[in-house]
Amino acid sequence: MNIYKLDNINELVSHGTAVTVGMFDGVHIGHRHILSMLSRMASESGVSPVVVTFDRHPRQVLTNDVSTRFRITTNEERYALLEQCGVAYVVEVHFTPQLASMSACEFFSQILVQQLHVKALVLGYDNVFGSRSHNDFDQLPDLAAQMGVKVFVDTAVSLNDIDVSSTQVRNALHRGDVATASAMLGRFYRLWGSVERGRQVGRQIGFPTANVSLNDPTKVLPAEGVYAVRVTLSDGTSGLMGMANIGGQPTFGLEKPVFEVNIFDFDSDIYDTTLTVDFVSRLRSIVRFDSVDALIGQLKTDRDAARRLLSQYSNQ
């Protein structure tokens, strides 16, 4: 896949382009439907199919939000997923307050027409871009027609009567429904981070855990709870079964939230390495047990349940 900036697109636009515009956070099944339409429209028009996206999530610029976890995918993940979907050309636009102030028609005329020589524009069912304070998005189809650009609007992809969107994926993760999030994404939701030394509480009760310090502070963290997960080690070992705890350890009076993973049948030293964790299913919420023995009994039950769930995906 070729990633261009606006200042090096000459070879890309020589025969015109078919374009879709968006952040494509998550590259979920709805996005994949749009990308399929883009490929088809480009082929029919004899032009290059191009995904126009941004180097930063608009939310980071518009709200100066650098602490809230709201991204489903990092840029690295997003581009890898776009490539897996068969996307050959991406134009990455530097998102600035000045760009945010452009109306939809200005963005269309100055960027898509003048610089990308767009011949066909593919929009998602809920696709909107341009300044909210100068909102002329509804005028875009008329402007496109005047400039000889065909506009195609994709239909929504629904799952259980819910139209799939990045917002719906985030909502599912925020309530701990990783199964629904995975169904919308078309893959398991993934987090990764460095393994650090923790409180050693799990080891003391026979359930040693890897304490994971997440590498990206903007990625969505699923709701507090215990999850069945699949784990990949930095040496490439994959498909390991485990369960993850997101939250505190109230039975021990420890309320500070942690992200820790118990890998089944595993006892190697992996400190200071990177752990990749795929969330398969939520097992239960975080609760305070009356005794350590009661906690151990529940953890054994959780482990059995996780093994049953994860065994269904052992060959995936």
Descriptive terms for the model:
31% helix; alpha/beta; six-stranded parallel β-sheet; six-stranded antiparallel β-barrel
Concise overview:
The protein is an alpha/beta fold and 316 residues long. 31% of the residues lie in helices and 28% in strands.
Strand order of the largest sheet: 1-4-3-2-5-6
Overall pLDDT confidence: 91
Please summarize the sheet with the most strands. Answer: 6 strands, parallel
Describe the global form.
elongated
N- to C-terminal distance: 25 Å
DSSP helical segment count: 11
Name the poorly predicted regions: none
Fraction of residues in H or I helices: 25-40%
Proportion of β residues? 25-35%
Helices and strands, in N-to-C order?
EHEHEHHEHHEHEEEHHEHEEEEEH
Q: What is the CA-based Rg, rounded? A: 23 Å
What structural category characterises the helix and strand content? Answer: alpha/beta
The beta-strand count equals 14
